[in-house]
Amino acid sequence: MPWRRDDVMTETTKQTTIGEIAASKPGATRLFERMGIDYCCGGALSLAEASRRAGVPVNDVARLLDECVGDGDSGPTEWTLRPSAELVGHILATHHGFTRSECARMLRLSEKVAARHGEAHPLLHELHAVVQRMADGLATHMLKEERVLFPMVLRGLDHATASFVLSGPVRVMRADHDEVGEQLAAIRRLTTALPVPSDACMSWRALYESLGDLEADLHRHMHLENNVLFGRIQALAAGG
Question: How far is CA 212 from the centre of its chain?
Fold first, then answer.
């Protein structure tokens, strides 16, 4: 159901999913991030339910959505209109490349900071363990996309193959995304519980900066897959 620019928030619009809004409304993803609304892994939630979970009034979210302007860079509306092959190329070049390089940096930093400050701050060891699991999982996940899912998409999908991809590879990718979402939430809880001390070393500050940068990019990355690419496959499978 498309996003409606109504002056009054209707029940119909309240039931529009976060994923649909993120994929069709310029600027929505930045607003959702600012308000703590999960639009990548939580894309199937209605606007009303997602707002409730984030603890913000749905009518306020709707008003701010109506005032949104474009993201200013390869926004979601643009990608909904581009061919799947171009979208896959963008995901590979932009998001897979960044994820690999940032995961390597993040791991080096988390190991160093935990080794240096973990005795005084045990939560740093827990943080490093979550970072390690997430980095390992992302590496495996991206390989599965690059070797299985994306080649199938690039070869072209008809109804039958789209139905198979939806029930097989896409189902696995969505489950992986949910796991990453849980790991990001755990990292957020740990870094909130252990803010950077005023006398912390630069590595500690760089680690938290890296974690924030990776989280923001993963939100955009998983949104393009969950709400745009996988949405196309789902529509093709349902179209028969």
Answer: 12
> What's the distance, Cα to Cα, between the start and end of the chain in Å?
20
Return phi, psi of residue 73, to 5°.
-155, 130
Return the higher-pLDDT residue of 190 and 11.
Answer: 190
Question: What CA–CA distance (Å, rounded) separates 160 from 163?
Answer: 5
Tokens 């029940």, residue located: 11
Q: Are 190 and 130 in contact (CB under 8 A)?
A: yes
Chain CA centroid to CA 128, Å: 21
Tens digit of each residue's pLDDT (9 = 90 or more) over 192-216: 999 999 888 889 999 999 999 999 9
What CA–CA distances, in Å, run from 118 to 74, 121, 127? 40, 5, 10
Q: Which of 37, 40, 43 is nearest to 17 (CA)?
A: 43
What would the pLDDT profile of 87-145 be if each residue is shown by its tens digit? 999 999 999 999 999 999 999 999 999 999 999 999 999 999 999 999 999 999 999 99
Each residue of 27-56: pLDDT tens digit?
787 788 788 888 877 778 899 898 899 899
> pTM value?
0.76
For residue 110, the one-letter residue type is: S
User: Quick one: which of 28, 20, 14 has its CA closest to 44?
Assistant: 20
Q: Which residue do the tokens 């240096």 mark?
A: 116
CA distance 7 to 65: 11
pLDDT confidence of residue 73: 43
Q: List, in order, residues 6 or more apart from 188 with CB less than 8 Å away.
A: 215
Query: Which residues, other chains included, contact 164 with Cβ-Cβ below 8 Å and sequence gap of 6+?
Result: none
